[in-house]
Amino acid sequence: MPISVPASFPRTRLRRNRADAWTRRLVAEHTLTVDDLIWPVFVIEGENRRDPVLSMPGVERMTIDLLCEAVVEAGALGVPCVALFPVVGSEAKSEDAAESYRPDNLMNRAIRALKAAAPDVGVLCDVALDPYTSHGHDGILRDGYIQNDETVEILARQALSQADAGADIVAPSDMMDGRIGTIRDRLDANGHELVRVCSYAAKYASAFYGPFRDAVNSGGFLKGDKKTYQMNPANTDEALREVAHDIQEGADMVMVKPGLPYLDVIRRVKDAFAMPTFAYHVSGEYAMLRAAAINGWLDYDKALIETLTGFKRAGCDAILTYGAVDAAKLLRQR
Ligand code: PBG
Description:
There is one protein chain. With 334 residues, the chain is α/β, with parallel strands linked by helices. It has one domain (31-333): Aldolase class I (TIM Barrel). Helix content is 38%, strand content 18%. It has helices spanning 21-26, 64-76, 106-117, 148-165, 179-189, 210-215, 237-248, 263-273, 283-294, 300-314, 324-333, and strands at 37-44, 50-52, 60-63, 81-86, 122-127, 140-142, 145-147, 169-172, 196-203, 253-257, 277-281, 318-321. An eight-stranded parallel beta barrel has the order 1-4-5-8-9-10-11-12, surrounded by nine helices. It has a two-stranded antiparallel sheet with strand order 6-7. Strand 4 (81-86), helix 3 (106-117) and strand 5 (122-127) form a beta-alpha-beta unit. Helix 2 (64-76) packs across helix 3 (106-117). The chain is globular. The protein binds ligand PBG. The site of ligand PBG has 12 residues, from helix 6.
């Protein structure tokens, strides 16, 4: 039997605008598009070889030739930019990370090949020493402490070698103090004034990087944690100070990392600085989605699009996500 209701109840019905797909589209406040996506990729030595990352189902490390093909395809789907990470063999790791700025290292060869194969796809390059140090830290380690200023000098050499190879964006992910200004000056002094600097400005000491460290073969080497340089997850005011410094030193874009647990930080950064603001939907966040989907506990496609839309809502201009190509395909179907 229908329940009788008062005639006047209710006048305002928020559900009206949800009643049809077309109204829902019309009143949507935020739109995720392929233009918002940056695809992180892993490059390995060799030829015609792909190597799955076990803790990141769907992600493969690729040799330069196969990576070029994959990036051409991503570009054809509309993905504007890739983020490049090298997998460095233990023979190339050292205390001083000298391999990181060798002009012909794997990273720099990959940059040259990608810019030749897919010139219209942006190449964002991680600037950090952790793939190259024998202890897995993002800097020079002495007396149990990561040395800030020596590390910054090596980062500047690394960024310059990437720019020389054709990098469009250099992205320091190390959290040393003062590196943005030093890198900006080094690039400008060498004719690279159009190379952009994307700062990993608010990067937290997070448990969600675990699968990435598997992928780049740095996790097994890492002694201790990164808490003396990456931020304490308890802090947000400090994130604003980090971002302010990096902008003042010349960053063109700023990033918050990880993503989902830090949406509040993204929102505060966007509101405070109105800068191009990126978030990194990191390896552990991606792995959670995949693991739950493999177990049949959630729908990967739907959860991915909802997640990325959440980043837009929080104020992101672009999102680094291992699901970029998946999302690009899904957005085409909509
Ligand atoms: C290294 C770097 C890390 C990530 C990007 N660059 C790992 C770390 O800081 O230990 C993590 C990315 C991810 O988890 O997807 N400087």
